[in-house]
């Protein structure tokens, strides 16, 4: 059985002229990166595609300066995040709107198994989760989406340029806010 090559080995081979090494690197990370970007901008698939492509273009141009520290995915996600932030800022300036901070929502204490979403079908629950994710503050949504893509908390801290405690706190608030949002759903799937 062939041993899987590390990201750094693939980058080194690509920089030495082996284009198939980059294809392997791209295939390894494309779904996670796209899933993360799509989760951050679910309202605009065309812009997600644009940021996704720009991320890979920028990554390719910066690969010669990449120094392996075992965090290629975090490095790649950070490029995507920065491009996404730039795009959102430009859009806000062009469209003249600004998102206000949300107040913290109260925690709901419900016995396990009594949550209203327990009786929803999978498709409806997926739609409600997407809707709830869109309501989260950007930092919380980003942490949740990165964890969903199995990115380690320490890598998320690097991507968001903050401490791991901040990342853990954001994840805790994201889960609490998702639970609160989903707690407002009745058994018919309609918001109360």
Give a written overview of the molecule.
This protein folds into two domains: 7-95, Rna Polymerase Sigma Factor, Chain: A, CATH 1.10.1740; 116-183, Winged helix-like DNA-binding domain superfamily/Winged helix DNA-binding domain (Arc Repressor Mutant, subunit A, Orthogonal Bundle), CATH 1.10.10.10. The chain has eight helices and no strands. 66% of the residues lie in helices and 0% in strands. By secondary structure, the protein is mainly α. The relative contact order is 0.12. It is globular and about 55 Å long.
Whole-number tally of structural domains:
2
CATH class of the largest domain: Mainly Alpha
Helix proportion: 55-70%
Would you tell me the overall average pLDDT? Answer: 79
Q: Considering the protein shown, what is the CATH homologous superfamily of the largest domain? A: RNA polymerase sigma factor, region 2, helix turn helix motif
Question: Secondary-structure element order, as H and E?
Answer: HHHHHHHH
CATH architecture field of the largest domain: Orthogonal Bundle
- Distance linking N and C termini: 55 Å
Main sheet? none
Number of strands: 0
Pick out the low-confidence regions. 97-119, 187-192
**β-strand amount:** under 5%
What sort of overall outline do the alpha carbons produce when their principal axes are compared?
globular
SS class: mainly alpha
């Amino acid at each position: 059985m062939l041993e899987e090559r590390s990201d750094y080995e693939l980058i080194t081979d690509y920089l030495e002229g082996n284009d198939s090494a980059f294809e392997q690197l791209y295939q390894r990370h494309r779904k996670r990166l796209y899933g993360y970007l799509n989760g951050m901008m679910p309202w605009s698939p065309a812009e997600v595609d644009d940021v996704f492509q720009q991320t890979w273009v920028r990554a390719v141009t910066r690969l010669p300066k990449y120094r392996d520290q075992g965090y290629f995915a975090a490095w790649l996600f950070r490029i995507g995040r920065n491009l996404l932030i730039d795009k959102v800022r430009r859009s806000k300036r062009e469209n003249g709107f600004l998102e206000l901070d949300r107040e913290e929502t109260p925690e709901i204490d419900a016995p396990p198994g009594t949550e209203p979403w327990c009786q929803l079908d999978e498709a409806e629950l997926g739609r409600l989760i997407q809707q709830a994710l869109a309501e989260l503050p950007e930092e919380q949504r980003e942490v949740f989406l990165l964890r969903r893509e199995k990115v380690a908390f320490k890598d998320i801290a690097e991507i968001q340029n903050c401490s791991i405690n901040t990342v853990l706190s954001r994840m805790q608030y994201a889960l609490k806010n998702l639970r609160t949002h989903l707690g407002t759903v009745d058994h018919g799937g309609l918001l109360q």
